[in-house]
Amino acid sequence: MHLLSTLRVILSLTGVICANYTIFTDTNSASDNQTSIATSIVNGMVTSTDYYPFISQLYITENNGFSYSFICTAELIGQQHIITAAHCVSDDNMKLRSPSLFRLNIGSATLATLSDIINFYTVTNIYGAGFATSFANDVVILRLNKPVPSSIATPVKIYPYKITANLPVEVAGFGSIYYGGPISKTLLRTLINVSDSSNCSAFNPDWANNSGPLVCSISINGNAACNGDSGGPMVAKLNGKRVLVGTVSWGENMDPKSNINCGANNVSFYVRTAYFVKWIASVMNVDYNTLIEIVNSS
Ligand SMILES: *[C@@H]1O[C@H](CO)[C@@H](O)[C@H](O)[C@H]1NC(C)=O
Ligand SMILES: *[C@@H]1O[C@H](CO)[C@@H](O)[C@H](O)[C@H]1NC(C)=O
Ligand SMILES: *[C@@H]1O[C@H](CO)[C@@H](O)[C@H](O)[C@H]1NC(C)=O
Ligand SMILES: *[C@@H]1O[C@H](CO)[C@@H](O)[C@H](O)[C@H]1NC(C)=O
Ligand SMILES: *[C@@H]1O[C@H](CO)[C@@H](O)[C@H](O)[C@H]1NC(C)=O
Ligand SMILES: *[C@@H]1O[C@H](CO)[C@@H](O)[C@H](O)[C@H]1NC(C)=O
């Protein structure tokens, strides 16, 4: 059982890495090729940077900068730091890849096009939380080459409170709009439910409750994160703004005979950001109190 689910995760990780939206810098060959990819918001509605002022897109460079492929959704978490999923920046052996391979398009609710490449941020450091030792540590902090001005994006704050099954949460990303379908060029968001069903532990031995490293969600009505949403934000509203509960990690269909891994009756797992807040603060070299949002009593 454990081995099986591990194998399935590796397969779905491969699927996620294969999100396929590529910008070719040689305009004679092609531009903005969008072919089928592996992950995205299912049943989403279009949203904007008004709601998600921290939203970012992670690209990988190929062929010495000849092309840039969209791989995951990410969030600005400090003026010069990004949070996303570890599997987005890891190789097949779960080892972190070189920072020089990655670029970020920050503060835009639409995927980058050729003219945006000049504004891409580069990555100087990748800090991992131990993904190679456990899938539950599917989170990384990326340090950017320079601070992001507040006119471009505002860092997200972390939701520090207990996660209950009735907490209203939302997930957002640029992933596929159905399993195996094309990614969305526009940021989509959808309401989902936190779950504490026994099915969460049945599908993931790393999950015991929503107070640990992972938050579980089971989709009844089809709303879900899908391929390309990896690293994207699960948010709750606090003091009138969206704060980070978790980041998209992986999901699968609860029916072992089905290979449609996004949508109705599928289980998905999110890395609970607050669980990692002290580690995040230490790699960013800040006090963790500056990273969390406290409920405003007034
Ligand atoms: C992306 O799509 C292109 C063209 O369809 C294909 O050749 C390439 O292998 C795909 N890349 C990935 C990572 O899936
Ligand atoms: C981009 O996609 C088109 C088909 O949609 C294909 O003809 C073209 O070869 C692709 N370009 C590259 C560089 O893969
Ligand atoms: C767990 O999953 C099974 C199979 O999909 C389903 O029949 C059952 O209702 C689920 N249980 C809960 C508590 O959601
Ligand atoms: C959550 O599960 C962990 C084991 O992973 C356990 O130590 C902890 O007490 C549980 N917390 C709650 C609130 O049930
Ligand atoms: C969330 O739970 C409510 C109440 O059980 C249900 O009506 C709704 O369809 C659920 N949403 C999702 C995304 O499963
Ligand atoms: C998972 O989601 C897909 C897409 O909505 C759906 O076709 C499939 O039936 C779901 N899985 C199960 C077990 O219902």
TrEMBL record:
Domain (Peptidase S1): residue spans on this chain: 41-285
UniProtKB keywords: Disulfide bond, Hydrolase, Protease, Serine protease, Signal
Pfam family, one: Trypsin
Secretion signal span: 1-19
CDD domains, alphabetized: Tryp_SPc (cd00190)
Domain of life: Eukaryota
GO molecular function, one term: serine-type endopeptidase activity
One example of a Gene Ontology biological process annotation: proteolysis
Entry's family note: Belongs to the peptidase S1 family.
Name this polypeptide is given: CUB and peptidase domain-containing protein 1
Organism: Smittium mucronatum
